Amino acid sequence: KARRRRSLQHKLHLEKDSRVRKAVQQEGFSRRKRGYRDINDIDINMNDPLFTKQWYLINTGQADGTPGLDLNVAEAWELGYTGKGVTIGIMDDGIDYLHPDLASNYNAKASYDFSSNDPYPYPRYTDDWFNSHGTRCAGEVSAAANNNICGVGVAYNSKVAGIRMLDQPFMTDIIEASSISHMPQVIDIYSASWGPTDNGKTVDGPRELTLQAMADGVNKGRGGKGSIYVWASGDGGSYDDCNCDGYASSMWTISINSAINDGRTALYDESCSSTLASTFSNGRKRNPEAGVATTDLYGNCTLRHSGTSAAAPEAAGVFALALEANLDLTWRDMQHLTVLTSKRNQLHDEVHQWRRNGVGLEFNHLFGYGVLDAGAMVKMAKDWKTVPERFHCVGGSIQEPEKIPPSGKLVLTLTTDACEGKENFVRYLEHVQAVITVNSTRRGDLNINMTSPMGTKSILLSRRPRDDDSKVGFDKWPFMTTHTWGEDPRGTWALEIGFVGSLPQRGVLKEWTLMLHGTQSAPYIDQIVKDYQSKLAMSKKEELEEELDEAVERSLKSILSKN
Question: Where's the P/Homo B domain (predicted)?
Answer without folding.
Answer: 386-522
